[in-house]
Inverse folding.
């Protein structure tokens, strides 16, 4: 899932300073799996803003809306009527949503209400951990399903570096050395051969694209050239 | 042009090599390098100059290498993958060669959060093994993209590092073999205090058949004081192992400095007995002036004169 976290109220208040009518726009939990950008989060933020405004002796009108997905054009367009006299939108979605809304409604000020943290897994309630950097050319088929692009701080492809001790990474206590795990697993499976060879340098265009990455189904990924 | 370096000649002639390492200063003063280097001159075959160790801003290793050359000291220039991508590294290597630098040591580099600018964007475009291939390619007249270098191309004597104390132990020789295959001719090891583990590692390398293919220089850091040893042990500087026994020995020493020298000399004598260990690499960490004493006591002085 895309792991996101609400920005501090103060930052959001700074953005909307001077506006007396705003839209707080949420994103329902989607198949791509954002956490807590939905209806409840919208309601909560709207309330927090209103309370603060009351404290400050100001007034503000807040529209609340939650769409199925802020990252799909067909759903986003449904707010056309809603935003007629709205001058600012605060989105509670990942960065994709903010950017898409800002692209379409370019005359309205669009502000992120969330920080987009990473692509991760939820291990227990409230515990998320990064698993993938969407590098565009997945190599975990050779690394026992464990991603060194994400989980090795030095992005080693010929690991482990000299900082691996007792399976722990030198960079941080409690961070397992992913290369240690990869080797242990592949060895058990009798599949260490790939690691006996020099792993060539990565073509980072699959991650950085040429400018940005695009996918047009009929053309394939437009990253290079 | 393929002119061999002094370090290369010493190693290839089968003599036991001695190198030492200095960190460049955290400012723009060349005198600080000269000051450290003067203790080493004549007592080592080449002097390593590090590349922003511990991810901390220091004078560049290229500048440091050139300053050493002006003092008639042969440098070993360190290059890490942390701060530069394949473009910058190749540009620096062309520059280094143009300025006469010929020994290159390839490392991955400490992670940025260890250093004084933890906010920095880590680069790590390549890892150390890919970096070795890059230096080798350039040495053979090809850029990393395999295109030919038109005109004068560099020639480098390529080194790399290995940590016998890192895990998994049984994979270390395999990884070392990859470094050799990529183009490393000499290998400096992490600081050796744990001789038992070091010897286990060398044995594994021997069994794996790679000892004849590379010159191994054992890393030696003379312990200046009990405090220093404890610091290394407790702060767990990545990859160094300090056995308790060594701490106890230092604790009961009357003169810590004298004991530190004894320890260094004993470790040198022990590592020398291992097949495949073809030299030592001294890391005096702020105790450069002791190098002549240690080299002499280890009976490694005078250094071979090679033309
Ligand atoms: S290799 Fe790339 S796509 Fe695969 S898990 Fe890692 S970052 Fe994600
Ligand atoms: S210890 Fe392992 S995970 Fe950490 S940087 Fe080194 S290879 Fe990567």
């Amino acid at each position: 899932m895309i792991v996101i976290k609400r920005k501090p109220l103060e930052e959001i208040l700074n953005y909307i300073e001077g506006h007396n009518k705003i839209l707080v726009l949420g994103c329902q939990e989607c198949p791509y799996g954002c956490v807590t950008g939905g209806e409840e989060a919208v309601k909560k933020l709207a309330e927090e803003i209103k309370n603060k405004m009351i404290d400050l002796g100001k007034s503000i009108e807040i529209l609340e809306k939650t769409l199925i997905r802020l990252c799909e054009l067909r759903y986003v367009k449904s707010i056309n009527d809603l935003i007629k006299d709205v001058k600012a939108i605060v989105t509670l979605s990942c960065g994709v949503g903010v950017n898409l809304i800002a692209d379409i409604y370019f005359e309205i000020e669009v502000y992120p209400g969330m920080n987009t943290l990473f692509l991760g897994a939820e291990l227990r309630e409230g515990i998320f951990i990064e698993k993938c950097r969407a590098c565009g050319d997945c190599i975990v088929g050779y690394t026992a399903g464990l991603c060194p692009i994400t989980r090795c701080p030095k992005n080693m492809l010929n690991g482990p570096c000299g900082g691996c001790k007792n399976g722990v990474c030198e960079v941080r206590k409690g961070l397992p050395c992913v290369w240690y795990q990869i080797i242990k697993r592949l060895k058990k499976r009798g599949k260490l051969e790939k690691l006996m060879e020099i792993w060539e340098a990565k073509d980072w265009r699959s991650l950085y694209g040429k400018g940005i990455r695009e996918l047009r189904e009929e053309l394939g990924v437009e990253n290079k050239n | 042009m393929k002119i061999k370096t002094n370090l290369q000649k010493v190693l290839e002639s089968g003599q036991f090599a001695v190198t030492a390492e200095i960190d460049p200063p955290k400012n723009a003063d060349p005198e600080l390098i000269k000051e450290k280097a003067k203790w080493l001159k004549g007592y080592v075959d080449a002097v390593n100059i590090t590349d922003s160790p511990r991810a901390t801003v220091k004078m560049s290793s290229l500048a440091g290498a050139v300053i050493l050359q002006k003092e008639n000291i042969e440098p070993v220039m360190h290059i890490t993958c942390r701060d530069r991508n394949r473009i910058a590294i190749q540009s620096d290597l062309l520059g280094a060669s143009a300025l006469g630098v010929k020994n290159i040591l390839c490392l991955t580099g400490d992670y940025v959060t260890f250093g004084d600018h933890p906010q920095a964007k880590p680069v790590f475009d390549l890892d150390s093994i890919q970096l070795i291939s890059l230096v080798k390619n350039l040495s053979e007249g090809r850029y990393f993209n395999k295109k030919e270098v038109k005109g004068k191309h560099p020639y480098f004597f390529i080194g790399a590092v290995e940590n016998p104390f890192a895990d998994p132990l049984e994979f270390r020789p395999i990884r070392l073999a990859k470094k050799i295959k990529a183009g490393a001719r000499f290998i400096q090891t992490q600081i050796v205090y744990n001789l038992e583990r070091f010897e286990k590692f060398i044995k594994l390398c021997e069994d794996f058949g790679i000892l004849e293919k590379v010159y191994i220089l054992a890393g030696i850091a003379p312990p200046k004081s009990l405090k220093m040893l404890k610091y290394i042990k407790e702060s767990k500087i990545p990859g160094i192992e300090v056995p308790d026994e060594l701490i106890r020995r230092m604790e009961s020493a009357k003169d810590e400095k004298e004991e530190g020298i004894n320890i260094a000399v004993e470790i040198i004598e022990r590592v020398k007995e291992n097949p495949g260990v073809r030299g030592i690499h001294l890391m005096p960490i702020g105790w450069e002036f002791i190098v002549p004493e240690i080299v002499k006591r280890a009976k490694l002085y005078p250094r071979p004169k090679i033309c």
